[in-house]
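Run log, item B.
One chain of 311 residues. Sequence copied directly from the ordering sheet:
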Amino acid sequence: MIIGGILMGKRIVKAKNKSDKKQWKLFASGVLYLLPALIVISVFLFYPMLKTLYFSFFVTTAGGVTQDFVGAGHYSRLLQSGAFQTSMWATFKFVLYTVPTGIVFALFLAVIANEKLKGMAFFRVIFSSTLGVSVAAGATIWLFLFHPTLGVLNNILAVFGIDGINWLTSSDWALVSVAITTIWMNIGFNFIVLLGGLQNIPEELYESSRIDGAGYWHQLFKITLPMLSPTLFFVSVVTLINSFQTFGQIDILTGGGPSNSTNLIVYSIYREAFYNGRFGYASAQAIVLFFIILIFTVLQFKVGERKVHYQ
């Protein structure tokens, strides 16, 4: 009886060791498959992040060589800097202008384009066409539209007897102008993703609701939006992050002016690093931006995801 128990115990230990070896082999195989991706991510993501963090503690030369260790000096300076506070305020206003407006407008177009009407394919191509326009080309198009004398927008205002607006040279309108350009540029991507989400909603749900006598608005708020909530959540996260990282259109349209009204934080980082040669100070701004985006993203997952309806 005792010998039988010992033998049984040995068999269990042996089976467990065999299972552990199998698990380790599977783990090693998984790591091997992921190794190329891990190397690429480490070189192009983790290393620059760590290098940026390292730079943020130093004063550097214009060539990017570290000189003096200043610890948290750059961060302390940022907190006291009026220019940085102006940049942060402009960034938050820009995010507020572009994210909700861009998502609502793209959703409106997606709902219209999801209707089964003749010729709708043409409008789907038009609505999604901005996805194929580069930032440089899109900003140049809007540069002409915003022109004070030749621009279409001021000519339309003139038809109604309204004075032209200095879209890009007025500190009151420059940020709005860049926001309009950004919304237009992002509309294609948001439209395609939301239209894909709408087309994945089962038609049976609408048929059942019609049998129960539900109207269009009831279907929209009780079926369409709840079923579309995972896609809306994804679009809101991506749009928010992209909005914080806006750069190209600012560089082409306003160059951060007038009076720093469009000097968003990413453009401020660029100017500090490559115009003023203060890589350490720019790196500290980049680290602050990273944590701001991280906090907003975490908040979106903690608060916004509760409203998401997963099937």
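Observations after the first pass:
- The mean pLDDT is 89.
- The chain has twelve helices and two strands.
Flagged for discussion on Thursday.
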